[in-house]
Amino acid sequence: MAPSTLSTRRRSTPPAAAPAAAPTLTGYRPGTSVLFTAPGQTLLTQGRRDLITAPLPDLPDRVAAALADAPAGSLATGAITFDGATSHLIVPEHVTWSGPFPSVRTRRSPAAWTITPVPTAEHYLTSVQRALDLITGGSLDKVVLARALDLHADQPIDVRDLLARLTGRGRHVFAVPLPDQRTLLGASPELLISRHGRQITTMPLAGSAARSTDPLTDRQRAQQLQRSVKDRHEHRLVIDAIADALQPYCTHLHVPYEPTLLPTPTMWHLATTITGRLRDEVPSLTLAAALHPTPAICGTPTATARTALTELELLDRGFYGGLVGWTDATGDGEWALTIRCAETRGHTLRLWAGAGIVTGSDPEHELAETSAKFRTLLQGLGVTAFV
Ligand SMILES: C=C(O[C@@H]1C=C(C(=O)O)C=C[C@H]1O)C(=O)O
């Protein structure tokens, strides 16, 4: 089916129609279910009618074709890699929409963990310094440098249990089954794009500070972040790139001048909620392809930043820094950045965290920022050793 016929298809989920049924994870099937939450909504799937693995630019057409062959109301959901080279999108047999996911108290796992930073902290510090040299040399304005933590438990990781503990740790809690019995899971605070009819919303984040358990220190950190010239510059680069990418699709685009402060349980972020009205009903995946990778996860200019991070990080990001979400046959959908996330299999997890490097960044500070970002998952795992 051609994408132009998208709007004639039945919507799978007008947001207002999400039933208020209390969600539970009992329907979650490790290895096959996709879970994706947004404020007030939980998407949980069972079974697999189709699997779409394609580069991001091809996905709008590939998804439209797959959903044209599926029963009315079907959707495609899953993840797309950072480099946009491939996807793991599932057309499920069964979809349940329910209300906000409740905080669940689960049995604390008595697992013992070994934790290995990849690369070492020293290597990360050197990479940040090299990025700063590129910025001083004038070839880059910003690059996001990530690192990983490899965790090994003395018992198999219970994905359902971990998901229950990630509730409330980010705007989008998610789990996507991947090949080879791997699961991508996390609690992302960052909305890349949502589309409902012609209405679009994006909420980029850039500029971060770790939360403190002391209320006074916590408030001071938030105020410092809001005043920080370096962080506001880092944030502005993202907002400008997103506004430029969305403008051609919109009759109206509202870009607030001032960022707001967004708290997660572990971090403060500078956030801007951008809303717009589309000229045509362009599919959410086309908008995602136009936006990704934003300077929030890659850098500015994009191509130079992409080359720099590939050379400096040494690791293949895989699905980290990519997209997770869903789209229906009308093109409505919601896509979050796959950050504050991990890939898990058996006894192991690889956690990811990155930080935006701009002029004025301090390597030790950026290292500490990535450590703080790891806490989203580490606290969910009950790991305090690294924190
Ligand atoms: C790269 C990550 O986060 C991104 C980088 C941020 C920053 O540098 O301030 C803030 C939020 C995200 O856009 C991550 O969490 O791994």
TrEMBL record:
<protein>
    <recommendedName>
        <fullName>isochorismate synthase</fullName>
        <ecNumber>5.4.4.2</ecNumber>
    </recommendedName>
</protein>
<dbReference type="Pfam" id="PF00425">
    <property type="entry name" value="Chorismate_bind"/>
</dbReference>
<dbReference type="InterPro" id="IPR005801">
    <property type="entry name" value="ADC_synthase"/>
</dbReference>
<feature type="compositionally biased region" description="Low complexity">
    <location>
        <begin position="14"/>
        <end position="23"/>
    </location>
</feature>
<dbReference type="InterPro" id="IPR015890">
    <property type="entry name" value="Chorismate_C"/>
</dbReference>
<dbReference type="GO" id="GO:0008909">
    <property type="term" value="F:isochorismate synthase activity"/>
</dbReference>
<comment type="similarity">
    <text>Belongs to the isochorismate synthase family.</text>
</comment>
<feature type="region of interest" description="Disordered">
    <location>
        <begin position="1"/>
        <end position="25"/>
    </location>
</feature>
<feature type="domain" description="Chorismate-utilising enzyme C-terminal">
    <location>
        <begin position="121"/>
        <end position="373"/>
    </location>
</feature>
<dbReference type="InterPro" id="IPR004561">
    <property type="entry name" value="IsoChor_synthase"/>
</dbReference>
<dbReference type="GO" id="GO:0009697">
    <property type="term" value="P:salicylic acid biosynthetic process"/>
</dbReference>
<keyword id="KW-0413">Isomerase</keyword>
